[in-house]
Design goal:
The structure is a single chain. Helix 3 packs antiparallel against helix 4. The protein is globular, with a radius of gyration of 21 Å. The strands form two sheets. It has a two-stranded antiparallel sheet. A two-stranded parallel ribbon has the order 3-4. It has 204 residues and is mostly helical.
Length: 204
């Protein structure tokens, strides 16, 4: 009869205690309906935004020059003035209500300690990441901090580890081309934690 011994990885896993925080929708009523509406609105921007320039070009060719010019000017103006909106961040976070088991972020205590000790900032890698609209990535990332409601969206231990000014300066990086697309740019700028992924922006 042989005795099974835990490997080092198994021993580490049994000792790991995660710091977890679950998102809860704040709008009363049918959270799943509200969450689905928010997700659909975001997908609408991601789908139709890149098509707007094509639609305007086609409309111009078909003779609707004045209409196309007016719409184009309005869109370019909105892209130019788009700014961070904590209200938009809080609305975006309502999408957590769509998921029957909610959305929860997990941190290792060692990670929190490492972040607290870092002087020049830190670069986070999140898993799962996803593509397009990765809900785990977006709902558990810097949008929580940019909503400007730490009591509701940030774990108490995280708030104690990180000063508010640093939390609200959290940022993420995306492909630079996205910031040239109508509606998509407005959304990214409105969330406040989106920056073109250039060497200058990432490493200063």
């Amino acid at each position: 009869m042989t005795e099974k011994k835990n490997t080092t990885d198994e021993q580490d896993n049994t000792k790991t205690t995660l710091v977890s925080h679950k998102l809860q929708p704040t709008i009363t009523g049918n959270g799943r309906l509200v969450g689905g509406f928010v997700i659909s609105s975001v997908l609408f921007c991601l789908f139709w935004g890149p098509l707007i320039p094509v639609i305007l070009v086609v409309a111009t060719i078909m003779g609707h020059v004045q209409t196309s010019a007016t719409i184009g000017i309005c869109i370019l103006s909105s892209m130019a003035v788009a700014r961070h909106s904590p209200t938009l961040c809080r609305c975006f976070l309502q999408s957590c209500g769509y998921f029957t088991k909610g959305v929860t972020v997990h941190y290792e205590p060692e990670m929190l300690s490492a972040i607290a000790e870092s002087v020049v900032g830190s670069l986070w890698c999140m898993h799962p990441h996803g593509t397009s609209l990765g809900m785990g990535f977006t709902l558990n990332g810097a949008i929580r901090f940019r909503a400007h409601d730490e009591e509701r969206y940030v774990h108490p231990q995280f708030r104690q580890t990180m000063p508010q000014t640093r939390l609200r300066a959290a940022d993420g990086v995306q492909a630079p081309v996205l910031f040239n697309l109508p509606l998509v740019r407005n959304l990214l700028k409105g969330l406040g934690c989106c920056t073109p992924a250039t060497k200058k922006n990432m490493f200063g």
